[in-house]
Amino acid sequence: WAFHCTHPTLSRAQRSSSVRSTCRRLHRPPCPRPFSSLRMIAPPHSLPVSLDYRLVSETKEWQALMRHATEHIQRVHLRELMRDERRVQALRTEYDGVYLDFSRQRVTEETMRLLYALAERARLRDKIDALRAGKHVNSSENRAVLHTALRAARSDSLVVDGHDVVREVWRVLDHVRDFSERVRRGEHRGVTGKPLKNVIAVGIGGSYLGPDFAHEALRTDPVANETARGRHLYFLSNVDPVDAKRCTQDISAEETLVVVVSKSFTTSETLLNARTMREWLWRELGTAPEVVRQHMVACSSNPDMVASFGIDPQNAFELWDWVGGRYSVCSAVGALPLSIQYGFEVFESFLEGARSMDANFYDTSRPLLENLPVVMGLLGVWNMSFLGYPARAVHPYAEALLKFPAHIQQVDMESNGKHVTLRGDVVDYAVGEIDFGEPGTNGQHSFFQLLHMGQVVPCDFIGFIESQNPLCLEGEPVSNADELMANYFAQPDALAYGKTAEECRAEGRPEELIPHLVTTGNRPSLSLLLPRLNPYTTGQLLALYEHRTAVQGFIWDINSFDQWGVELGKTLAKRVRQQLNQSRYFGEAVSDHFNASTRELLERYLRGQVG
Ligand code: F6P
Predict the structure, then answer these.
(1) Distance, CA of 272 to CA of 467 (rounded, Å)
(2) Which portions of this protein are annotated as coiled-coil regions (predicted)?
(3) How far is Cα 100 from Cα 528, in angstroms, rounded to an integer?
(4) Per-residue confidence at 611, pLDDT binned at 50, 70, 90?
(5) Predicted confidence band of residue 41 (pLDDT cuts 50, 70, 90)
(6) What angle do CA 314, 203, 292 make, to 5 degrees?
(7) What is the ipTM of this complex?
């Protein structure tokens, strides 16, 4: 409960307080109004950590950072900051092989000190502890957020709302292990007796992006590549019928297992795609109930809907309301397709990597500088809310991470794309970056021009010491991987230092070209360097970025774990779907409930008129 005094002469900060006694103390002179004039604001569900401010921007720690940004950081170029070697050495940290250099951020040690102070004021450690303990940090849905329990060790225990969630997790993981091994050994076969060597995973959003990113990261890892020999994994996410065609056109239904992944089992795109796959199987293999029972399985928290679809309840793999879709890759959502493709041991190694990063994040007794997700989260807050950079890019210098930016885009933008605090107050500071990215060096030949000369977009560079595919051609000055990494090392400096007019002149460039050649620099980035991309480090990266998002949400005091914004579009699509049905099959005119623009678009679409 929060008590907001309605006294008109008080400032917003003074009017707000978490308890009545504090509220009275804040008033100078004490509020003459009786208790009844204090408006009691009930949050939808009690919040696990209470704060002594309404908006974090009202705190003195936030104000100090604002001043620091304008009075110091905005006046100094990264070129100068990088001259101070002591500073450069202070702005780096490492955990379990993951090395983070953030010296090319527009920060000093003083900035970091002020950011840590903000973290203390925002009670970041308490919030992390609440997350870990299974408190209902997703307050608008009154849910715990326990994706880290999905990668807890079997020997761990975490009792939440009366259930040992770790035991539940391992019950399902054992089920996944058993089923995936039976498929891989050819014990669970298709109806014609053929082994199931293809898997089509049907799902969208969090039920697709995480598994797809992990699959791409693993498929060229030498060990995983070997264990996947002869097997194929496809993802069907888009409801565009072309996606279904692309998935099925080169494979035989006899050898295919369809995994329907939907936490709710109500997502319209996924269910239509699941029905499309069922039709395909029926068409190819007949309509006997065994076809669906042998060729379709599901990951869902809705067993009734799974059963009514015709899927054998024995082949339904459970998840729970405390697993958010975008945080679900470590549940059966990722475990099932990835274990069938690569074997359960490979997936376990991915879980172990994530668990390692969880341990770093949850160790709130250590200095914040040693907590990688916290450092990256605080830098995110700094760049967005204090330096005003609305976007952020992630560039893995590893082709196998080609789907990582898309996954992080959902993790971060669905989590932190919010406009109110947990209590429902509208924020007056910028939250939620626009995330995008592309593997290097491809990105360099696409949008890097803008990063060097146009908008300032803080960048994450992710590199690896060893390649998944070491290759060195005779006569070449460096190996292929060194060629790639040369760019990984060069780009952050190009962004930070830029090129001055004097440097261009010293190269003998014609004077009229100089304005076109100057790059301003002063563009922040951070560099992550890991030993090699394998299942373990893929798990580490996943958890690092998941927790970074949580840290930012905790500082901004928003709910990073709900996604109400996506509902409106779904509701409107329902109305359009009804209209399309009525018009196509019953000849009804487009309703004037739609606005003139949508009406015209719909009419053209229904008439089939292109020009
Ligand atoms: O529309 C967004 C969303 O709700 C995501 O949060 C979720 O990952 C996705 O849809 C799919 O949901 P489900 O797993 O329930 O099909």
Answers:
(1) 40
(2) none
(3) 5
(4) low
(5) very low
(6) 40
(7) 0.98
Q: What pTM, to 2 d.p., does this model score? A: 0.92
Nearest residue (CA) to ligand 1, atom 9: 205
Query: How confident is the model over 158-168, as a mean pLDDT?
Result: 93
Which atom of ligand 1 is the closest one to the Cα of 207?
14
- Is the pLDDT assigned to residue 35 strictly greater than 70? no
Whole-number Å distance between alpha carbons of 443 and 438: 5
**Residue 8: pLDDT band by 50, 70, 90 thresholds?**
very low
Residues marked as catalytic: 414, 445, 570
**Is residue 340 a contact partner of residue 180, using CB atoms and an 8 Å limit?**
yes
Given a cut of 50, whether residue 407 has pLDDT beyond it is yes
Q: Using N-to-C axis directions, what is the helix angle for 344-362 and 372-381, rounded to 10°? A: 70
CA dist 75 to 72, 113, 376, 420, Å? 5, 19, 23, 32
- Ligand 1 atom 16 nearest Cα: 262
Nearest to 133, CA basis, from 145, 116, 117: 145
Q: Is the pLDDT of residue 343 over 60?
A: yes
Which of 332, 312, 310, 338 has its CA nearest to residue 320?
Answer: 332
- What is the 62 CA–ligand 1 centroid distance (Å)? 34
As beta bridge partners, residue 529 has: 99, 463
Instruction: Work out which ligand 1 atom sits closest to the CA atom of 270.
Output: 16
Could you give the CA distance from residue 611 to residue 596 in angstroms, rounded to a whole number?
19
Residue 609 has a pLDDT of 66
Confidence band of 610 (pLDDT split at 50, 70, 90): low
Average pLDDT of the chain is 93
Structure tokens of 373?
Answer: 């997700």
DSSP 45-98: S--SS--S-SSGGGSHHHHHHHHHHHHTGGGS-HHHHTT-HHHHHHSEEEETTE
Of the chain, the percentage scoring pLDDT greater than 90 comes to 90
| Distance from residue 269's CA to the centre of ligand 1 (Å) | 10
Place of tokens 């975490």: 158
Taking residues 516-523, report their average pLDDT.
97
Q: 581: CA distance to ligand 1 center in Å? A: 25
Using a 6 Å CB cutoff, which residues line ligand 1? 204-207, 262-264, 267, 270, 325-326, 414, 563, 566
State which of 141, 239, 260, 263 you would mutate to test the pocket of ligand 1, scoring each by most atoms of that ligand within 8 A of its C-beta: 263
- CA distances to 12, 36, 50, 126, 232 from 18, rounded to whole Å, are 13, 16, 7, 16, 55
The H-or-E segment that residue 585 falls in is helix 565-586
pLDDT in tens, 207-236: 999 999 999 999 999 999 999 999 999 999
Task: State in Å: Cα 262 to ligand 1 middle.
Answer: 7
